[in-house]
Amino acid sequence: MRPAAPRAPALPGDALRPEGEPAADCLSALRDATRTRHERLDAALPIASPGATLEDYVRHACALAAWLQTLSPLLGVLDDGASAWRLDDPARRNALRDDLADAAAPLPPCAAPGARAAIESALVPFPGRHAAVAWGMAYVVEGSQLGGQWLYRQLAQPLAPHPLRYLQGSGTRTAERWKDFTARLARNVRTPADIEAACAGARAAFDALQRLYDPQETSA
């Protein structure tokens, strides 16, 4: 994700796609479907603003921990053993737990009714395509790892000695992991109906995360 200045890669995949090369249909549709939400969320994130503090990171980590917990059941369905990279990755939740512990902050409660409502509302119109909806949600989670690494480069020194584990993503293999994900996405979301469902899932993932930045939601 990016602050207003300096600017990070605009949308998931843009930084890894050679200039002039068209995106795959599903990836392009997901990017277009979430553009407004992505830009609105990025613009409002304190952690992406100049002068971000450890308190800002703690709030960010709390929202992400509740978000990943909310998405976990759907992402887990997609993990069929076809890839070494898990979409419902416990390492990410563990990194957030350890980051919060290092900052002497408690884990957020599992209950996040507003976020859950956003996720459930995306499933209702697509009773036979819940997997496609979940692929759209996974797109947002996986894409956020690219932005997380950008944030890490901006914050590692100002917030030292905190390790900011979560923002490091998969380290030097983060780009490789994104490419693996987009290949899986292309194999599993191919028809217009599935792409429509995936776009609904991606929008819902952004909506859920946006709601988790509401103090009333994270303290529920």
Kindly list the characteristics that best describe this protein:
8 helices, Heme Oxygenase, Chain A, about 220 residues, heme oxygenase (decyclizing) activity, disordered N terminus, mainly alpha, Heme oxygenase, Haem_Oase-like_multi-hlx
Task: Please tell me about this protein's structure.
There is one protein chain. The protein has eight helices and no strands. It is mainly α and 220 residues long. It has one domain: Heme Oxygenase, Chain A (Up-down Bundle). α2 runs antiparallel to α7. The model is unreliable at 1-11 and 13-23 (pLDDT under 50). It comes from Paracidovorax cattleyae.
Shape annotation: globular
Give the SSE string.
HHHHHHHH
Low-confidence stretches: 1-11, 13-23
Give the helix/strand class.
mainly alpha
> Can you count the helices?
8
Beta-sheet strand percentage?
Answer: under 5%
- What is the number of E strands? 0
Q: Per CATH, which architecture?
A: Up-down Bundle
Q: Kindly report the average pLDDT value.
A: 87
